[in-house]
Hints:
Protein name: 4Fe-4S ferredoxin-type domain-containing protein
Distance between the termini: 75 Å
Shape: globular
Region (Disordered): 1-26
Keywords: 4Fe-4S, Electron transport, Iron, Iron-sulfur, Membrane, Metal-binding, Transmembrane, Transmembrane helix, Transport
Radius of gyration: 26 Å
Helix content: 25-40%
Transmembrane segments: 31-52
Largest sheet: 2 strands, antiparallel
GO molecular function: 4 iron, 4 sulfur cluster binding; metal ion binding
Amino acid sequence: MKTREKTDSAASLQEDGGATRPQKPGLSRRSLIGGAAMAAGLLAFGGATAAFGGETDRLRPPGGQDADRFWGACIRCDRCRAACPLAAIGVEGLTPGIIGARLPIMDFREGYCDMCDGAFRCIAACPTGALTAFDPYVDKIGMAVVDEAECQLYGISGTCNAPCIDACEWDALSLDENGRLVVDEKRCNGCGACEYVCPTSAYRNYDASNKRGINVEVWHG
Length: 221
């Protein structure tokens, strides 16, 4: 009987270099269903917190434009911000509420996104998939919008060397026949270079204005 028991026991083991070890069980249907349910739950939680937190006007890093997914997956690890070579990623304060605190946001007053020549270091650094694949020719971080009340080209003097046009690597900015700045919405991907170099805030710092002549806003197109 003991010999038979040993034989039956050995049949359930794998030989590995003379040693035996139990076979690893495969994923069961219950495990797969449970994993899918957990993923769906995280997305649902992300959608609820995004709505509660007022996710309406926040610019997220490349690949973070799906608010439900972003809120459900981001763990505020700060790795995307640390990976950004141009300091274009900042962190959210308490303005939108404690739920949104420490979430990464784009800060085009400190830097701009050069897309890392396609490497997207922020996306590569994200450990949870909160930042997904981003195509700068199709996807948008946001959209550049001209503020006619602030842009020097729309002012009384109408003078500005328009550094924003030279800064845009996507040929999304130009001057119309009246010398006014216009944005090509098909080309603009919200990289923020135009906002970063805009001199308007420097011209008007005497009135404590933090506005610039062109600002990147959330794109709902």
